[in-house]
From TrEMBL:
It holds the Pfam family PHO4. The keyword Plastid does not apply. The chain crosses the membrane at residues 12-31, 52-76, 91-109, 121-137, 157-176, 223-241, 353-371, 442-464. GO terms for cellular component: plasma membrane. Belongs to the inorganic phosphate transporter (PiT) (TC 2.A.20) family. Pit subfamily. InterPro entries: Phos_transporter. Keywords: Cell membrane, Membrane, Phosphate transport, Symport, Transmembrane, Transmembrane helix, Transport. It comes from Acetobacter indonesiensis. It is found in: Cell membrane; Membrane. It is a multi-pass membrane protein. GO terms for biological process: phosphate ion transmembrane transport. This is Phosphate transporter. GO terms for molecular function: phosphate transmembrane transporter activity; symporter activity.
């Protein structure tokens, strides 16, 4: 599968299948993760389930449209450059099938078990698995085939954010307890269908909206990045390069030469050959384009295809990133490498408006079904007592703040982990305690997610690439 003929009927069919898979994954992400936002308003009777999921769906939709792309490409850059743009424009069907199939399967498994698990961890584990599988396919050392520093950066955000959610929600609950003297905030809702007092009810509606919006702004970016991998495979001529930034290529001749000099002097790892070869091609193209007309200037037939240009940009970006991380690189050269990398990234790191809209629609529609299993776990099975308005508000306020901050700083975090940990923290802060059996199952699933998805994606990619 690794060498499908570009634009052949079979390759197009497989890429359409990949497109369907990523949309289904984002749909499942919607109903898997929406429980984190609606559990509090449902279990405090602030909103009926139907209204709660519609509100959450709308806010998820708006969050995706308002979010940026930093998280999207923080994930995409975990993949090796040659997987992002395979040689000769051949679509990366094995990568897409392994990635989407693995993430979707584990997400559905944990949802079926009623365990609030992280869709982000599923995607990241699958991406790392694909990178490992690609290293085996090409006979590379794992240190060369996987960008472990980028992986560690992402995993640090995923590891620390639940701890911040746990501690932050527990502390906020204590602050509310000390400042707010209204007993209704700290007691379970009354029997029957009556909602809490007016201001308590609207506080929870507001926190539900904030978590849903922040979830869309962060998780929506992840699906945008995945959809773009499929879009480039289906329409490489149209979407390999950003039509609005393609004028940045070819680079000015002096800039291309400087880039080549930096890579030659300071890029000393396994990517050096690929990055330097790409830099050589880019410099040759830049030099030819700088010649005056009639003196052997660049002809239209000499312009590389958009896919080749895309591949070269990703190779050079990866090489410059290695230079920045090289301990022997002088500070000034690191700054120059970063500036060059940032000047190239807009050419390949983009998303058309309709991709954003597709991601928003899949995520928001997914929020409206299938949420009951996870809601029941969050509302009934984490703490020893019924969820109170103060506990729900503490978990969601802290969660929304952490997720929004991460979304606009380019760090992918897990809405599920943050809010679930926040609910647990609010339970501990109130002294009500936790149900150890369910908490143990949740933590076990969290620890199992990365090894399972990494292993499954690596095996699938390797098998499909033969």
């Amino acid at each position: 599968m690794l060498h499908f003929t570009p634009d052949s009927p079979l390759s197009i069919v497989m890429l359409v299948l990949c497109g369907i898979l990523v949309c289904v994954f984002e749909f499942v992400n919607g109903f898997h993760d929406t429980a984190n936002a609606v559990a509090t308003v449902i279990y405090t009777r602030s909103l009926r389930p139907g209204k709660a999921v519609i509100l959450s769906g709308i806010m998820n939709f708006l969050g995706v449209l308002a979010g940026g792309l930093s998280v999207a490409y923080a994930l995409v850059e975990l993949l090796p450059p040659d997987v992002l743009s395979p040689p000769d424009g051949a679509p990366a069907v094995p990568m897409l099938l392994a990635l989407f199939g693995t993430a979707l399967a584990w997400n559905l498994f944990t949802w079926r078990a009623g365990i609030p698990n992280s869709s982000s961890h599923c995607v990241i584990g699958a991406i790392v698995g694909v990178a490992i599988g690609d290293a085996f396919v090409h006979g590379r050392h794992l240190g060369d085939g996987v960008d472990w520093q980028q992986v560690l950066k992402v995993l640090e955000a995923l590891a620390f954010s639940p701890l911040l959610g746990l501690l932050g929600a527990g502390l906020l609950y204590q602050v509310l307890r000390a400042v707010v003297k209204n007993a209704a905030l700290f007691q379970p809702p009354p029997e029957g269908d009556a909602p809490p007092q007016g201001w308590v009810r609207w506080l929870l509606v507001g926190t539900c909206s904030a978590v849903s919006f922040s979830h869309g702004s962060n998780d929506g970016q992840k699906s945008i990045g995945l959809i773009m991998l499929t879009v480039v495979g289906l329409w490489p001529t149209l979407y390999a390069l950003d039509p609005h930034q393609a004028h940045l290529l070819p680079m000015p001749s002096a800039q291309a030469a400087h880039m080549q000099q930096i890579l030659t002097a300071y890029d000393h790892d396994g990517l050096r050959t690929e990055a330097l070869a790409a830099a050589d091609r880019m410099q040759t193209w830049s030099n030819a384009a700088a010649l005056p007309p009639g003196s052997g200037a660049l002809q239209s037939t000499d312009i590389p295809s958009p896919v080749v240009q895309r591949g070269d940009v990703f190779q050079v970006v990866a090489g410059l990133k290695k230079v920045e991380r090289n301990a022997d690189t002088p500070a000034q050269v690191k700054a120059e490498a970063k500036a060059l990398r940032n000047s190239l990234k807009p050419v390949v790191e983009f998303a058309p408006w309709w991709v954003r809209l597709l991601s928003a629609m899949c995520l928001s529609l997914g929020t409206m079904i299938g949420y009951q299993r996870i809601v029941r776990t969050l509302g009934e099975k984490i703490g020893r007592t019924h969820l109170t308005p103060a506990q729900g508000a503490s978990a969601e306020l802290v969660g929304a703040g952490l997720i929004l901050t991460a979304g606009y700083t380019g760090l992918p975090v897990s809405t599920t982990h943050i809010v679930t940990a926040g609910i647990a923290g609010s339970m501990l802060g109130s002294g009500s305690g936790l149900q150890r059996g369910m908490v143990g199952r949740i933590v076990l699933a969290w620890f199992a997610t990365l090894p399972v998805t990494i292993g499954l994606a690596a095996v699938l990619f390797y098998g499909l690439s033969l």
